[in-house]
Amino acid sequence: MDEEAFNLSLRKFLKKVGVTAQREIEQAVRAAIAEGRLTGGESLAASVTLRIGRLELATHIDGQIDLT
């Protein structure tokens, strides 16, 4: 295995995940505020599951997103 190539590929994947997730969350929060489903002062429970089928990897991550 080429450690440098692996590290670069992994970082690229994680950047794509992070950028995409942030954009989707921001759009959903703004829409919910505009529709009155959120006030903008909430703390939102969030979770992500990372799966890599060929590795039989499934990792669940829980967290909070504070809007204030």
Characterize the largest beta sheet: strand count, sense, and whether it forms a barrel. Answer: 2 strands, antiparallel
How many runs of DSSP E, i.e. beta strands? 2
How would you spell out the order of helices and strands?
HEE
Number of helices: 1
Low-confidence stretches: none
User: Domains counted in the coordinates: how many?
Assistant: 1
- Please report which band the strand proportion falls in: under 5%, 5-15%, 15-25%, 25-35%, 35-45% or over 45%: 25-35%
Structural class: alpha+beta
What value does the average pLDDT take? 98
Please provide a brief summary of the model.
The chain has 68 residues and is of the alpha+beta class.
What does this 3D model show about the protein?
With 68 residues, this protein is α+β, with helices and mostly antiparallel strands. The chain has one domain. The chain contains one helix and two strands. It has one helix at 3-34; strands at residues 43-52, 57-66. A two-stranded antiparallel ribbon has the order 1-2. The longest helix is centred in the N-terminal third of the chain and has 32 residues, at 3-34. It starts with a helix and ends with a strand.
